[in-house]
Amino acid sequence: MKRVVIAGSGNAALCAGIAALEQGAEVLVLEKAGVDEAGGNSRYTAGAMRFAYQSREELLPLLRDPASAALDRTDFGSYPRQDFAQDMSALNDGKPLNYLQKILVDDSYDTMLWLSRHNIGFDPIYARQAFQKDGRYVFWGGLVLAAQGEGVGLVEAEMREFLRLGGTIQYECECRELVADDSGVWGVLCMSPAGEVTIRADAVVLGCGGFEASKELRRRYMGEEWANAKVRGTPHNTGAGIEMAMAVGADLYGRPDGCHAVPMDLHMPDFGNTELPFVERKNYRKICYFLGLMLNAKGERFVDEGENFRNYTYAQFGREILNQPQGFAWQLFDSKVDDLLYDEYRFAHVSFVEADTLVELASRLEGVDAERALKTIQVFNKAVDPANAFDPTILDGRCTRGLSVDKTNWANRLDTPPFRAFPVTCGITFTYAGLHVDKNARVLNRDGENIPGLYACGEMIGGIFSAGYPGGSGLTSGAVFGRIAGRSAARDRRRFMGVR
Ligand SMILES: Cc1cc2nc3c(=O)[nH]c(=O)nc-3n(C[C@H](O)[C@H](O)[C@H](O)COP(=O)(O)OP(=O)(O)OC[C@H]3O[C@@H](n4cnc5c(N)ncnc54)[C@H](O)[C@@H]3O)c2cc1C
Question: What residues does 25 pair with on adjacent strands?
Answer without folding.
Answer: none
